[in-house]
């Protein structure tokens, strides 16, 4: 196989994979390759997700599809499936490179080796060395991601992340501030700080709230967000920052997974239902308009109808602005995978439907309650209609409007109408940049 001249990166799963995908693209571009569509590229990087079985299976169907094309590209499997399955991938599918999420700075060398005909693999997990080896940030969209923390020490019994992403590691304060400045220079006006447990970020006792307070002073950076957080790492300093840091957006994604203390215990979440609800009270005390988001799993082994009723009543008590919900998927190697008392697919389907109906109801109510407000919207992309742009409200709602403003502008918008998944607005007046 000759050395590839063009590449395409396809990311699955979470926002950290989106960030990693962008960084891999920057790396390949710095190595002299040109970006192309998946159908034309000489090298396709599949940046994979291992969180649920269906996500993992998607990789293999994608490889099959790529191999069916007349022109067969070089295929690199990156991301969490690469980490979890390692050399087994070579046995299961014809791929050229397997590279884990902590080793992708070595992608150019692995690709060069594969071009010489040797399938190549790197699933080492050296702590943080990849960041120093990556090229500087190029042009980015108005809303950019920045990984500040990786890995997880929580070991929830259903979850593969501690195995695929490794132990909790925080990037150093100075490196993050430098990357944030580079992102702003490259066009970002909003930065979302990413980590599997981002609120556990720490550098010598500084804590995430100190990082946010420093980033708040970067000229041109209008908005700061962070995701994903664990309830047990939600410290008072961070809660206080929601009360007085203007650029910190009023949005908190705080997964709870279940409303049943009994199930939370079996999940090893190390907090109960009431701890979670009391925590949200403290956040709402400093920022009453905060939009709350969560993740839920239905059908964890042993979940009774009573446990599930506790989840529904927690949803009622919180009133989420948005949330993600999943059927439990047994993952090889996790403690929950050996638990008996599995819940049938039919019961899981039924519970997921009921949960999603409740979450949709609350999302609609939250959006409907926004109508009549005036808020800043960061314009991120063109809409379907001529002259239409789509951006985000402070509460992470998509807002579309007809405007002659430009992508990257922060504009003041009167919210006029709530549609099922977005809001329609009109320009109130151009906000000061
Ligand atoms: N099955 C179903 N959902 C899962 N999640 C994590 N592991 C599993 C699993 N084994 C969900 C959790 C987590 C989100 C990223 O994915 O809700 O917060
Ligand atoms: Fe997985 Fe739990 Fe860690 Fe989140 S906190 S990444 S669900 S182990």
UniProtKB/TrEMBL annotation:
Which keywords belong to this entry? Answer: 4Fe-4S, Cytoplasm, Iron, Iron-sulfur, Metal-binding, S-adenosyl-L-methionine, Transferase, tRNA processing
Q: What GO annotations for molecular function exist for this entry?
A: 4 iron, 4 sulfur cluster binding; metal ion binding; tRNA-2-methylthio-N(6)-dimethylallyladenosine(37) synthase activity
Q: Where is the Radical SAM core domain?
A: 138-365
| Primary localization class, coarse | cytoplasm
Q: Could you tell me the EC number(s) of this protein?
A: 2.8.4.3
List residues binding [4Fe-4S] cluster 2.
Answer: 152, 156, 159
Give the UniProt subcellular location, in the record's own words.
Cytoplasm
Location of the MTTase N-terminal domain: 5-116
Belongs to which family?
Belongs to the methylthiotransferase family. MiaB subfamily.
Q: How does it assemble?
A: Monomer.
Q: What is this protein called?
A: tRNA-2-methylthio-N(6)-dimethylallyladenosine synthase
Tell me what organism the protein belongs to: Sphingomonas ginsenosidivorax
């Amino acid at each position: 196989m000759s050395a590839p001249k063009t590449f395409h990166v396809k990311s699955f799963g979470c926002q950290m994979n989106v960030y990693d995908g962008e960084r891999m693209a920057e790396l390949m571009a710095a190595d002299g390759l040109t970006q192309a569509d998946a159908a034309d590229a000489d090298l396709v990087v599949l940046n994979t997700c291992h969180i649920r079985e269906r996500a993992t299976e998607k990789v293999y169907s994608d490889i099959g599809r790529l191999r069916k094309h007349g022109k067969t590209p070089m295929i690199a499997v990156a991301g969490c499936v690469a980490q979890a399955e390692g050399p087994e991938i070579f046995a299961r599918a014809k791929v050229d490179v397997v590279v884990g999420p902590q080793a992708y700075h070595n992608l150019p060398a692995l690709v060069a080796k594969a071009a010489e005909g040797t399938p190549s693999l790197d699933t080492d997990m050296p702590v943080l060395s990849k960041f120093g080896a990556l090229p500087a940030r190029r042009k980015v969209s108005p809303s950019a991601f920045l990984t500040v923390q990786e890995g997880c020490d929580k070991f929830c019994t259903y979850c593969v992340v501690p195995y695929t992403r490794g132990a909790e590691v925080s990037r150093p304060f100075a490196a993050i501030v430098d990357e944030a400045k580079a992102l702003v220079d490259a066009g970002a006006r909003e930065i979302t700080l990413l980590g599997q447990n981002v609120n556990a970020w720490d550098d010598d006792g500084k804590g995430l709230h100190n990082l946010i307070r420093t980033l708040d002073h970067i000229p041109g950076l209008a908005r700061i967000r962070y995701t994903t957080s664990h309830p047990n790492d939600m410290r008072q300093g961070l809660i206080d920052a929601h009360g007085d840091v203007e650029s910190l957006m009023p949005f908190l994604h705080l997964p709870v997974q279940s409303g049943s203390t009994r199930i939370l215990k079996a999940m090893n979440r190390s907090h109960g239902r009431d701890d979670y609800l009391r925590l949200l009270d403290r956040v709402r005390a400093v920022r009453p308009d905060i939009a709350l988001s969560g993740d839920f799993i239905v059908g964890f082994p042993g979940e009774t109808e009573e446990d599930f009723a506790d989840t529904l009543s927690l949803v009622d008590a919180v009133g989420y602005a948005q949330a993600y919900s999943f059927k439990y998927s047994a993952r090889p190697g996790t403690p929950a995978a050996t638990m008996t008392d599995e819940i049938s697919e039919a019961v899981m389907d039924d519970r997921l439907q009921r949960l999603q109906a409740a979450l949709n109801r609350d999302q609609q109510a939250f959006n409907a309650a926004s109508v009549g407000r005036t808020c800043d919207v960061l314009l991120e992309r063109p809409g379907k209609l001529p002259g239409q742009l789509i951006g985000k409200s402070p509460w992470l709602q998509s807002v579309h409007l007809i405007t002659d403003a430009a992508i990257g502008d922060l504009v003041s918008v009167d919210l006029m109408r709530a549609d099922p998944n977005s809001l329609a607005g009109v320009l109130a007046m151009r906000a000061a940049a």
